[in-house]
Amino acid sequence: MTTDFAATKRQFLLPEGVIYLDGNSLGPLPRGVAERLQTTVADEWGQMLIRGWNTAGWMDMPARVGNRIARLVGAEPGSVVMGDTLSIKVYQALASALELVPGRRVILSDTGNFPSDLYIADGLVRTLGDGHVLKTVAPEAVEDAIDGSVGVVMVTEVDYRTGRRHDMARLAAKAHAHGALLVWDLAHSAGAFPVHLARDGADFAVGCTYKYLNSGPGGPAFIYLAPRHQDAARPALSGWLGHEAPFAFDLDYRPGAGIERMRVGTPPILQLAALDAALDVWNGVDLDDLRARALALQDRFIAAVETACPMLTLATPRDHGQRGSQVSFRHAEGYAIMQALIAEGVIGDFRAPDILRFGITPLYIDEGDIDRAAAILARIMTTGSWDQPQFKARARVT
Amino acid sequence: MTTDFAATKRQFLLPEGVIYLDGNSLGPLPRGVAERLQTTVADEWGQMLIRGWNTAGWMDMPARVGNRIARLVGAEPGSVVMGDTLSIKVYQALASALELVPGRRVILSDTGNFPSDLYIADGLVRTLGDGHVLKTVAPEAVEDAIDGSVGVVMVTEVDYRTGRRHDMARLAAKAHAHGALLVWDLAHSAGAFPVHLARDGADFAVGCTYKYLNSGPGGPAFIYLAPRHQDAARPALSGWLGHEAPFAFDLDYRPGAGIERMRVGTPPILQLAALDAALDVWNGVDLDDLRARALALQDRFIAAVETACPMLTLATPRDHGQRGSQVSFRHAEGYAIMQALIAEGVIGDFRAPDILRFGITPLYIDEGDIDRAAAILARIMTTGSWDQPQFKARARVT
């Protein structure tokens, strides 16, 4: 192992007394971000004004930052571009993918997918009409459900509740064998473990950056389009910055070169600057090291919790190959238990109806954190201290 | 006039030696923004981490900031929400509007509309298929082209090149008389002059915030949905934060209450914080005062330029009622002339093929700026100093 994880941990500003196991929802603040934002605001926006689009390189940021993400997800240079939100990028990917398989009218997904992906797909088939449907099956039934009627398989690699992981290479191969395309949602994958989009046959992929890539609340999403599809794919959300010549202001749309066509409107430069600074954390990180250490930390947490808290049921697969970077347990009173944990400085989150989620990333989590978090959880469960009105009252949780 | 425009000017950080006449493209930096971003990053994201969504009120920001915008555009409370880019919001508005007029398949727009709106509409009709078309006519022909075949009239109030302004109340009345709906793009209206969405019968409206609302590069867009349509409108881009209960994680989409349904994905909190701080500039600003003073400054600029530079042709209507907040002149060498102006500290911009644009807003532009800018332009035109290779070489312009 060549990666120095003590050094990566020092690159985050973590609050005193907090063990942060919710980077799968919102990554913590990397040190360089605040300073970079000050530069972007005061020196670029403030001094360059409109000239910043060229002089400060704002206009090229979606592609430049996209190339930094590409390296983390095994994508070819020039195949990833930043912008919008994950939901918007799902819409773009689905609509473009469907157009590449004329005559196919079925989007296949699974009931473990993040609801927003299903909502977006549902909205798209409604807009398309003409017999298009969204078909959902159980996660373990996706592979068998791929047949010649399916146009696009849309799967989130890691289940946001259980942390169960799909075998994406296998799904891609099956999809391609039946003439379908694969849209791969990397929300809980990018920055969580090595991803090999090019090697594993992805057609489209989408992901967010505010989880394991630590870009901050509302950081921009990304979209991957395999080079073999770039010339043929027509963007459904055809905005001016995806045009071949945005500043010609032609009345007719002509898609831009390569991945640029998946851009839509004006990019969010402040959020992109925060992301760009946050990506510096990855310099010197070997993703295989990250994966090996994440699994070791997860196993350590699972063992400690299962020993001390038999009332919690592991929801995450034990098989390393079927696991993402989070560990989830089930308990009917999961909501209150999580509130009690948060009150003691162990921040995970809750997902209805009964899931306690703990994101475990070696970038800023070490053995000491794992042991302390497990000990606090054990104390809460054995004393029953979660069973208090202030923990059971439901506020909106994110 | 009750508004103190010397005070509003002091609220902007303008570079020394620059006269900034490009706020119609990117507004300058208001004083409070940098500090607000530091708070959002260090105290909220850094310390609250995931809890910021509730504790710092991030989750409600799209609606809360939307209500601040609503006041500036004459909209009812609870009718405006922030998010995404203007292009995305155009797509949402068009798709939802079309669904409210079943059987109508024509989107009517004009050739003076911003190309991105046309591209988005073109993409939408392609996705909808089934005979949907985008029909464009000359700007002055829009009103006459509204007939019973038209489902949605999509018009940008102020022409991005000439500054010519549509009579939106009149177009709304005509559209409604023929059973059509109106989508009103406020890109060059919001913050530029008083807008009366509710009074003037808008059905949908969309706008951006990085121009006259000074939210910074890539600031979020907004969408308005008239209260009378809120229960019936179905969002086409149906993301999880537009769901009735996002954190129930239901598999089926149910649109959220009122304007909330037009939300899509995770809101860009850093950009929203910048916008929220930038909106403080508007405290104490009377929009009728703003309009009166903007017209006076425009007239002063037009008079000075027409006197000294007969080779420039006014592209903006002389009639106050047909004018937005920018003044444009035509010249075949407009690009080089603008570069020469910028080199002398007068920042406007150029729009192909021959338009020099000057955004004139009293928030930070006064008579001294107007006189100096006109004098510098006069010198450049009379000496012909624009006719140099470094000004004629085309770089990408924004």
From TrEMBL, chains A, B:
GO MF annotations in UniProt: kynureninase activity; pyridoxal phosphate binding
GO cellular component, as recorded: cytoplasm
Pfam family, one: KYNU_C
Cofactor(s) recorded in Swiss-Prot or TrEMBL: pyridoxal 5'-phosphate
Listed InterPro entries: Kynureninase, PyrdxlP-dep_Trfase, PyrdxlP-dep_Trfase_major, PyrdxlP-dep_Trfase_small
Top-rank taxon, per record: Bacteria
Listed GO biological process terms: anthranilate metabolic process; L-kynurenine catabolic process; L-tryptophan catabolic process to kynurenine; NAD+ biosynthetic process; quinolinate biosynthetic process
Hydrolase keyword on record: yes
Annotated positions binding pyridoxal 5'-phosphate: L86, S87, F114, P115, S116, D117, T156, D185, H188, Y210, W240, T266
Enzyme class: hydrolase
Protein's UniProt keywords contain Cell division: no
Keywords: Hydrolase, Pyridine nucleotide biosynthesis, Pyridoxal phosphate
Reaction equation(s) it catalyzes: 3-hydroxy-L-kynurenine + H2O = 3-hydroxyanthranilate + L-alanine + H(+); L-kynurenine + H2O = anthranilate + L-alanine + H(+)
SUPFAM superfamilies assigned: PLP-dependent transferases
Pathway the protein contributes to: Cofactor biosynthesis; NAD(+) biosynthesis; quinolinate from L-kynurenine: step 2/3; Amino-acid degradation; L-kynurenine degradation; L-alanine and anthranilate from L-kynurenine: step 1/1
Positions of modified residues (N6-(pyridoxal phosphate)lysine): K211
PANTHER family (UniProt xref): KYNURENINASE (PTHR14084:SF0)
Quaternary organization: Homodimer.
Family: Belongs to the kynureninase family.
Function: Catalyzes the cleavage of L-kynurenine (L-Kyn) and L-3-hydroxykynurenine (L-3OHKyn) into anthranilic acid (AA) and 3-hydroxyanthranilic acid (3-OHAA), respectively.
Record's protein name: Kynureninase
Lineage, broadest ranks: Bacteria, Pseudomonadati, Pseudomonadota, Alphaproteobacteria, Rhodobacterales
Gene: kynU
